[in-house]
Structures are given as structure tokens and as C-alpha cells.
Specification:
about 450 residues; D-Amino Acid Oxidase, Chain A, domain 2
């Protein structure tokens, strides 16, 4: 570990050609509590051949390697620029939602009709069971807890909107989402002072995300996969169907490549992935341990995952070890990531929701880049039928659960088996491009200001 390069908080996927080489982890709570990283195969130090190469050693890269080995007998090579789980895998909130992207079920219906929306919902339930099984694997120690998901209405209008969503869940999808009162939220779940009520979903699991990824990596290597760290892909050429992936220590030759880099995908990696994601930064903090009085006053009666209904939403949960974790939006560019105002935004949210915690110490504060799809829906596919290139991206901030299922489906695609429902939206079209991404950041500033106004008045 002493040979690692120092963590650079100003890293920005739109400005750096690679996320570095052998860079230390961001200072997240998950890194602090995950224990010793699993063994890897070190740096690529010579030219090698591989049946399949997966670029990126986070949730998707490690889990796809696991599924390729366990279900298809394919021993993949994973190329990770820094450390296992270095990107948003070790920086998210650890919330395993039942969510494919960021669109609501009513938006599914509006966009694709009732029949396709029902298929998407059924697919999400099936995919969620893949995630659940991974969290319950005795060889994956990821601290799963808190069954369920509470969507907290921050205003009267938000409560009415969630009422409509809950009705659609029950009547159209047969999914038992229930509206609960402010009093019940406080009595049974959490004393969030901004809550007008909430929609309670029966499905959702909280995990220690980096432990989950470490578990994927250990099992993948146990089954024969190779995971090379400190090995960024600095060049990519293709000739006669053979991909040559250049790293600082040697070139890896392969017939099939899976891109699993999410929000850390450089525009320079390959033309098939260029500008397919908009990297958006999110913050997260973990407080000091709470006192018994603070826990009682805040009514932390549950460890399930909470998300409020703001457009600039807050996601939070009461950790089993007695701390509050909460996250939200962050800076727009990497150069602004350490501006104290971004931490202040989260601290002010804590004070509004839990007044007794105003000014509480937040010893853990970090940020990560999400891969936001232009249409808010992820994709798992082979974008060009003539090339053995595959990607699974566009999770849009809901990758903890989806990445497990996406990895299984990506492994199916790479093996030649194919996905079970190739005509549903996440499998049947490439990610739409984000044109002029650097320029779009100017619009992002304006959009955030607009959302702040809406969140105050709704």
C-alpha cells in the first residue's frame, strides 16, 4: 500500500485521460471499515493474451468476472487503473434499491406503455434477486441489513405524488408499496422532521459496498479470473478482430472486451463509449457515533434505506454501528470538489432533518462520480454487432443492486448465451450520447439552481 500514489480529489473524468495509475482510495467510511483488500494479480508487467478482458475493477468488472467463471467457465482478465473498487463502488451510499436507472414506474408507462412497463418491473424483481443472492452468499461478507426502502415526502405535493406512484405500484404492477403517515414514519422508522409521510417499498437492502466488491473479487479470483491493479488502459487498437489494450506495463490481447468503468469512463477510451455518460458528482458523509440520547430523539428505529423526494435528493440511513450516513449532490467540476460549501449543504440537511444533530462532527466526507445516462436508463449490450465489444453503464446513481444483475447479463452476452429478454429497453439500444458534455456543465449550474427553487416551494 505504501507504493500507492496519493488520492487526487480534483480528478475529473472530462479532463483526465485516465483516472491515474495505482492511486490510493478516496477517504470514504467504507474504505476505513472494509478491512484488508483482497489479493490481486499486481500490475500488468508483460504482454499477455486473454479470452476476455474487463476494463474496470468495481462492482461490474469484478462481478462479471465472477459470473463468467462460475456460469460459463471463462476466466477473464480484469484491468483496473487503481485499486479494486476504487471508483464509485467505494464511494456510494450502499443502498440496494429496486431501481433500473432513475425513472419512476409512471414514467416507464408514459414512455413505453403498460405492457413494457410491467415487463421492466418483472425484470427488476428478477434482477434484484440476483443481488439479494450475492449479499447472502456466505463467502461475501458485506453486512446486509435493513430490508425495505422508504421514500420520504419532503412536502405536501411530494406526498400526493408518491400516493399516485404507490397506487400504480399496487394496481398496475401488483407490487405492495404503501403510503404511511408522518406519525408512522417517526414511530417505526426515523424522526426526519421534514417528513410529511412516505412511500414504503418492501424491497431494498443496505450493504457495506466495498466489502461487497471485495467479496466479488475474491470469488472471481478463486474461480480463475485475473485482476490486475495499477493497470490503466492507455491505448486501444483493433486489428483482424483482436483488441490490443495498452497498459504502462504491457499490452493485453483479446477477442472480447467488456467496458465496466461507469462514471470514470474517459472520453478517450473508445469511440463506442465516448460521451455515453454524463459524469455527475455526489457527496457523502458519515457522522461520529451518536449518543443514546441523540438516537432516541432522532428516532432511529430502523436500518432500512431512506431517500427523500427532492429533485436534488438526499439519501441516508442509520448505520448498525450507530452513525448517520447521508449523501446528496456535490460540485459540478473536479476543481471545485473540496469547496467547503458542498459539505455545508449536507450539514445543513442534517440539521433540518435532525435538529439535535446540528453541528455534529462528520469525520468522513468524500465524493464520487456517477454515470448518468441521457435518458436515465442503464444499458447492458453489444453496441456494434460487428465488434466483440460490450458495455454495462448508465446506472444513474442506482448501481449497487442493478450492477449485480447487469454483471450476470453482461457475462451472458460475452459468453454468447445472450440476455433473456433482448427486446426490453435496457438491452435493445445503445446509450444515447451526451453531446457537448463540457458545455452541458454550464446548464447543470442553472438546472441545480432551478431544482433548489422547486425543492423549496413544492
Amino acid at each position: 500500500m505504501s507504493n500507492l500514489q496519493p488520492y487526487n480529489p480534483k480528478y475529473d473524468p472530462l479532463k483526465f485521460k485516465t483516472p491515474g495509475m495505482g492511486v490510493d482510495y478516496a477517504p470514504s467510511y467504507w474504505v476505513k471499515t472494509a478491512g484488508k483488500p483482497p489479493e490481486d494479480d499486481g500490475r500488468v508487467s508483460a504482454d499477455i493474451d486473454a479470452d476476455v478482458v474487463l476494463i474496470g475493477g468495481g462492482f461490474t468488472g469484478t462481478a462479471t468476472a465472477l459470473f463468467l467463471a462460475r456460469e460459463h467457465g471463462i476466466k477473464a482478465v480484469v484491468l483496473e487503473a487503481n485499486q479494486i473498487g476504487w471508483g464509485c463502488t467505494s464511494r456510494n451510499g450502499g443502498q440496494g434499491h429496486l431501481a433500473w436507472g432513475r425513472l419512476s414506474r409512471s414514467e416507464w408507462i408514459k414512455k413505453w406503455g403498460v405492457d413494457m412497463a410491467r415487463r421492466l418491473h418483472r425484470n427488476s424483481l428478477e434482477g434484484y434477486e440476483v443481488f439479494r443472492a450475492m449479499t447472502q452468499d456466505p463467502e461475501i461478507d458485506c453486512d446486509p441489513h435493513g430490508e425495505g426502502n422508504l421514500l420520504v415526502a419532503h412536502s405536501h405535493d411530494a406526498y400526493r405524488y408518491l400516493e399516485g406512484e404507490a397506487q400504480i405500484c399496487r394496481e398496475v404492477f401488483g407490487y405492495d408499496a404503501q403510503m404511511i403517515s408522518r406519525e408512522r414514519v417517526h414511530d417505526e422508522f426515523v424522526g426526519d422532521q421534514e417528513a410529511w409521510g412516505a412511500m414504503l417499498e418492501p424491497v431494498g437492502i443496505a450493504v457495506q459496498p466495498l466489502k461487497l466488491c471485495y467479496g466479488y473479487a475474491r470469488l472471481a479470483r478463486k474461480l480463475g479470473a485475473k485482476i490486475y491493479t495499477s493497470s490503466p488502459v492507455t491505448g486501444w487498437t483493433t486489428k483482424d478482430g483482436i483488441h490490443a489494450l495498452q497498459t504502462p506495463g504491457g499490452t493485453v490481447h483479446t477477442r472480447a472486451v467488456g467496458v465496466c468503468t461507469a462514471g470514470y469512463t474517459s472520453p478517450n477510451l473508445h469511440k463506442l463509449t465516448r460521451y455515453k455518460n454524463m459524469p455527475i458528482m455526489a457527496n457523502s458523509v458519515v457522522t461520529r457515533k451518536l449518543t443514546e440520547e441523540e438516537i432516541e430523539v432522532c428516532k432511529f428505529n430502523s436500518h432500512i434505506i431512506f431517500t427523500d423526494s427532492r429533485k436534488l435528493r438526499y439519501y441516508y440511513r442509520y448505520l448498525p454501528e450507530g452513525r448517520l450516513q447521508i449523501g446528496s449532490r456535490s460540485a459540478i467540476t473536479g476543481t471545485d470538489a473540496q469547496n467547503p460549501k458542498h459539505l455545508q449543504i449536507v450539514q445543513e440537511a442534517i440539521a433540518r432533518k435532525f435538529p439535535i444533530l446540528k453541528g455534529i462532527e462528520t469525520p468522513y466526507f468524500w465524493h464520487g462520480w456517477m454515470d448518468i445516462a441521457h435518458d436515465m436508463m442503464p444499458r447492458v449490450l453489444k453496441p456494434d454487432p460487428k465488434q466483440q465489444i460490450f458495455y454495462s453503464q448508465g446506472y444513474s446513481g442506482n448501481g449497487v443492486s442493478f450492477s449485480a444483475y447487469a454483471s450476470q447479463q453482461l457475462a451472458n452476452l460475452i459468453s454468447g448465451k445472450g440476455v433473456s429478454e433482448p427486446d426490453i429497453p435496457i438491452f435493445n439500444s445503445p446509450l444515447p450520447s451526451h453531446p457537448l458534455r463540457p458545455v452541458r456543465r454550464l446548464g447543470q449550474h442553472a438546472l441545480y439552481r432551478y431544482f433548489e427553487i422547486l425543492d423549496r416551494v413544492e
